[in-house]
Specification:
Distance between the termini: 27 Å
CATH topology of the largest domain: Rossmann fold
Strand content: 15-25%
Number of strands: 12
CATH architecture of the largest domain: 3-Layer(aba) Sandwich
Oligomer: single chain
CATH superfamily of the largest domain: HAD superfamily/HAD-like
Helix content: 25-40%
CATH class of the largest domain: Alpha Beta
Radius of gyration: 19 Å
Number of domains: 2
Strand order of the largest sheet: 5-4-3-2-1-10-11-12
Shape: globular
């Protein structure tokens, strides 16, 4: 039996019940009971920056984590009663991808390209360059031009595009190639001495798939879309990691498997003795 446990969880629509599916009434309280156990190390893994993670923690009364992997994987913070402390070890690990460049150097590199508007300063950091892009832009052409500039400078970077449907605007992040949720969790595991036998990740969406379909034990919460569930199953089969992917279905401790209920269900699936850790006298 493994006593120490590292729980890494996505926030939006995984731990946070901010999707359209209902939340089980007792789920977050039971998650807090589990998270506050001395044996448990808790890490939030999110695309949100520091201020937005803090806002989510306050709005949803989340337990204080031990670590936050934020800014789409480009930052790792250790959290104590004294506050947030950024881990320089992670910056040192991802810096070589950008071949000595940092945020402002990368911004200058792409300055000649039309259609890129810098996002607000709170959404930028040393290794995260974020733009707004018009919906109607010729995206393949823009990305090809950016990749050409990166190749000329021998810079290893990922270009992550998504759409803010409410604002009807494209979002484009330029990140070090190693600065992903998966790589950041692997780094945290190594630094803290955790293996796959005592680490569990929880997620809900497409950007969680690299972790969900890796050898790291993972749970896809029940409120995930049918498309993501299908993709997760297919990719896990391709990677031969089926045994490390659990799809929450509900019924565990009378809960529906959505959000934190799904996290608890997945943790107990991999480590059955932890069900006792989730019990309360209330």
């Amino acid at each position: 039996m493994t006593e120490r446990l590292l729980i890494c969880t996505d926030l939006d629509r995984t731990l946070l019940p901010n999707g359209s599916a209902p939340e089980s009434a007792s789920a977050r309280a039971l998650f807090k009971v589990l998270a506050e156990r001395a044996e448990v190390v808790l890490a939030y893994v999110s695309g949100r920056h520091k201020a937005l993670v803090e806002q989510a923690m306050a709005d949803y009364r989340l337990p204080r984590p031990d670590f936050v992997i934020g800014d789409v994987g480009t930052s790792i913070y250790a959290i104590t009663a004294d506050g947030w402390r950024e881990w320089p070890q992670w910056a040192e690990a991802i810096a070589p991808d950008w071949a000595g460049r940092e945020h402002d150097d990368m911004r200058r590199l792409f300055a000649p390209l039309a259609g890129l508007t810098l996002q607000e300063s709170a959404k930028q950091n040393r290794f995260k360059l974020s733009y707004y892009v018009p919906i109607e832009i010729d995206l393949p052409r823009l990305l090809a031009a950016m990749r050409d500039l990166l190749a000329q400078q021998a810079i290893r970077a990922d270009l992550i595009y998504s759409v803010d449907e409410a604002a009807n605007i494209g979002l484009l992040d330029v990140l070090p190639a190693s600065a992903t949720k998966f790589h950041a969790i692997e780094f945290l595991m190594r630094e803290l001495g955790f293996g796959i036998e005592n680490t569990v990740f929880a997620g809900d969406s497409g950007n969680d798939l690299p972790v969900l379909t890796s050898p790291i034990r993972s749970v896809l919460v029940a409120n995930a879309s049918d498309e993501v569930r299908k993709q997760a199953r297919e990719l896990a089969r391709q990677h031969s990691t089926d045994s490390a992917l659990y799809l929450a279905k509900g019924g565990f401790m009378g809960m529906n498997g959505n959000y934190s209920a799904g996290i608890l269900e997945g943790v107990a699936h991999y480590l059955p003795h932890t069900e006792q850790w989730m019990k309360t006298d209330d």
